[in-house]
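Troubleshooting log. The previous structure file for this entry was overwritten by mistake, so regenerating from the original sequence record. Sequence copied from the archived sheet and checked twice against the printout by T.R.
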Amino acid sequence: MSTYQPDDPYQGSESGKSQVGQQVVLVLLICVALVLLYNIFFSDGSSSLTSFFQPSKEVKLTYVPSDFNPNLDEEATLRVLAQPDVYAKEFDDIVYHFNINLLYHVASRMSLPDSLKRRLEPEYVKHHQYLKTLYYNDFIALKDTSATLYETWYNDNANQAVELFSEVAGKYTCFFVTQIMATLLRADNGRLMAKGDGVDSPCGIAIREGLQPLVERLKKKAAVMDFSASQGLLKERVRKGIAELATYELQSRLALDKKLQYELFGYAISETDIRVEAISVVKAGFRLNDYLDVTYSPSKDMVYVTLPQPVILSHEVYPKIDKLDVGFLAGITGEEMNRNFNELRRQFREEAIGQEQVLEKAKMRADSVMTMLLGPTIGAMGRKVKLEIRFAEQQVQPPAEDGGKGNSEPAPPQLSDPAPPTIPQSKRRNLAN
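Regenerated output below.
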């Protein structure tokens, strides 16, 4: 009996491998088909095969003229911006009202229908919770709230607050305006086609037609307020009792050089050279009239002393002009001199708080100072009794430097409600703080 043997003994195995490979390819094709079907029928914004293969639709708009009216009391707004730590709730109201009116203005310029305009405020409410925190924290970080008295004296308190608000608002305006408009118009994957008067992006409209004009108006009002506040500062002697504990002192020295040139046809023909030098004495510590708590625990034989957060208690600056070469054409005005003095003062405070960490060092010194003050009393209570220093998490009552009004508390400013053009103002929703 004879048997047949193939010439290639591995032919059968290769055929099996080929079949396995075909099966793998078939499984992959099935998986791809399932993914496509899921995207077509179950993903957001697509409910049919035709819509899946069609390109993103264009959103066509016709821009129309519109005037931006934020409906904010400028004087009250400046008072809030000058002391945001005192008027924290009013600061939140300013951010809310300004941003809402900004959105209404952008919508009016883009000639959006009333049905979309009515959705602006509910959409913004979704973002306001984190936006108000970002605005406030950034503003407080940039503004030295303990220098109100000095900024007022140098005619720069309200004006500086306006500049800081412009800087902070400029960081977030484009983000939330673009986000909300894209949500309303469903233009995330499409193009925005526009025609008409003053065509611009929603971000450009908000910045150039909303934020920048408001800042310019506030600056003009701030110049008048700063001048009036400086002239009226301490017209009468201010007498008040204080309870302060200074635990750290920093003495430093800085200089500021400045050259002013008078040019004719691009050539400097006259020059004024000025050098202002100053020494600074910064004292950091605690305002005990803000908060002070002493508690004794018999079970632990421990005396707990809770102090407020440290602040700059006093800052003395002694300027001196070391060099003043005045050109026959390029002079220097008193306003420029005051600006230079105030700039030196700011540099001293920034260096003391940032580089020298005077507030943290005041905390470190508080333990030894309180031990020296309360040591004899605690020693009389027993050998086992010890002292522990604690610090309050935040100021119970934020300090406000007196501007000649004695100990009276300033009345909270009144802010007018926003009234967007052509759209009835809906009631503000209750926002959780």
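The first strand starts at residue 59 and ends at 63. Archived copy saved in two places this time.
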